[in-house]
Design brief:
four-stranded antiparallel β-sheet; 12 strands
Length: about 220
């Protein structure tokens, strides 16, 4: 049972759990567990039985699928405050259709699916919150499918850079990469070699400047 006050405060402020009563929190935390994972360590593998969903307390993880030929495709990158695999609790005999692996040293909290389902049956507000969360994720996935099916590799990379600009000043800005370039290439469905060539081409065209001593771009 989790009793750490900081973790409890973090969870209680998350929109999936903010509508829970004190009694429901006790019920939820009676079966919840925290776990720490090292970089490249898997939380679960594709095809494993899905008995839990997760909230990222710290670190970065990648959600990916492996094709029959062994090729890996990163589906999503999960960061602090993100939840994943919660939709599977509504399936009969669920199995993870993807794998989850830590990109950096990470800390997670695992929630038991059956415990949360019991709460949903008696708390309509909690049910609405998880439906809203899945709707947002579905919209994100549809946008990603559209981008991957319509845009070419260069445009996909440029679109990602434009969407992630920080510290924007006039026509310039900074993009900090918190994941390895190989992971980003897979997320954008670009081969690593092609990704490297595109970065060099964009730099040669004066569209970006890459800081080789820090994981960031200037654009």
């Amino acid at each position: 049972m989790i009793t750490d006050s900081h973790i409890i405060d973090t969870v209680s402020s998350h929109h999936l759990f903010s509508a829970l009563t004190d009694a429901e929190f006790k019920q939820l935390f009676s079966t919840a567990k925290t776990c720490k994972v090292e970089p490249l360590e898997n939380i679960f593998h594709q095809g494993d039985k899905a008995s839990c969903f997760y909230l990222v307390l710290q670190g970065h993880l990648k959600i990916y699928r492996t094709s029959p030929s062994g090729q890996e495709k990163v589906v999503e990158v999960m960061r602090e405050g993100s939840t994943f695999a919660e939709a599977l609790m509504f399936k009969n005999k669920p199995f993870y259709p993807v794998a989850a692996q830590a990109v950096s040293e990470s800390e997670l909290i695992a929630f038991d699916n059956s415990s949360y389902l019991k709460i949903l049956k008696s708390n309509p507000e909690a049910g609405i919150a998880i439906m809203a969360n899945m709707s947002i994720r579905l919209h994100h996935n549809l946008s990603e499918i559209e981008m991957l099916s319509v845009e070419n590799a260069k445009n996909r990379l440029l679109l990602f850079l434009m969407q992630n600009i920080q510290d924007k000043d006039g026509n310039e800005g900074v993009i900090e990469l918190d994941i390895p370039k190989r992971t980003l290439a897979s997320l954008l469905s670009i081969q690593p070699e092609t990704f490297s060539r595109l970065l060099k081409k964009l730099a040669k065209e004066g569209l970006i400047e890459e800081d080789r001593f820090a994981p960031m771009f200037g654009i």
